[in-house]
Specification:
The chain is an alpha/beta fold. About 35% of the residues lie in helices and about 20% in strands. The termini are close together.
């Protein structure tokens, strides 16, 4: 496979409330396929900082890259994907904002009957999910002990990250792929389809919770590989 045609770098960006370790199953599979996989450890304090963190990872790479985002990570890659080394974007149950949109604006008006993420009121400028509702909303298809660990190891999500608006959506100029999690109770699947269609993304829907990248790493890795092999 030629680097001139297909990038061998894949950069994975996590979302809110979690860190990059959830990508391990995807990382293992893509690495065994010969890809150079990097995982961005975003502080999730602000969108601007997270884009800068992602750019530092991209700057250090040799050659081109596919940029992958889960959940809030989709907002990060939408802005960070304008980097010259990025050839394509992959959204995994992720937000794909347009110009001037943020995660906050995208979740402001949920459709009637849609599940509402159990986000607690801000504490000192940071957001958390209700621990007792974490498994059902975020990780319903994971083993109970793993879902409980994720609930108890939440990364504080900065309100500034939630409110950070995209100024230049990279999906307007670069190819996009979108994996919809059919059983997601954080981002309603119809909203995922709407964002994917707007971005002109190649779209696949699979069974899975919002944590589909953890529960179905093989499916997610194959989807990313298809985008990289384009």
């Amino acid at each position: 496979m030629s680097e001139s045609k297909h990038p061998r770098n894949i950069v994975l960006v996590h979302g809110g409330f979690v860190d990059g370790s959830g990508w391990q199953g995807v990382y293992d599979r893509l690495s065994k396929e010969g890809y150079r996989v990097s995982i961005v450890q975003n502080p999730t304090l602000s969108l601007e900082d997270d884009v800068a963190t992602t750019h530092r990872v991209l700057d250090a790479l040799e050659g081109r890259a596919v940029l992958v985002g889960h959940s809030y990570g989709g907002a990060v890659i939408t802005q960070a994907g304008n980097h010259e080394k990025v050839t394509g974007l992959v959204y995994i149950a992720a937000f794909a904002p347009d110009k001037g949109e943020s995660v906050s604006t995208l979740i402001a008006d949920p459709p009637p009957g849609a599940p509402v993420p159990p986000i607690l009121p801000p504490r000192d400028g940071f957001l958390f999910l209700d621990r007792d509702k974490f498994a059902a909303s975020f990780a319903a298809d994971l083993p109970a002990d793993l879902a409980a660990f994720m609930a108890d190891s939440q990364v504080p999500w900065g309100v500034d990250a939630l409110n950070g608006a995209v100024s230049q959506p990279a999906w307007r100029t670069k190819s996009a792929s979108y994996l919809v999690a059919a059983d997601d109770r954080m981002i309603p699947p119809p909203a995922q389809h709407t964002m994917a269609e707007r971005a002109g993304a190649r779209t696949v829907e699979v069974p899975g919770s919002h944590a589909v990248y953890v529960s179905r790493p093989g499916t997610v890795a194959d989807f990313i590989k298809q985008a990289a092999d384009g």
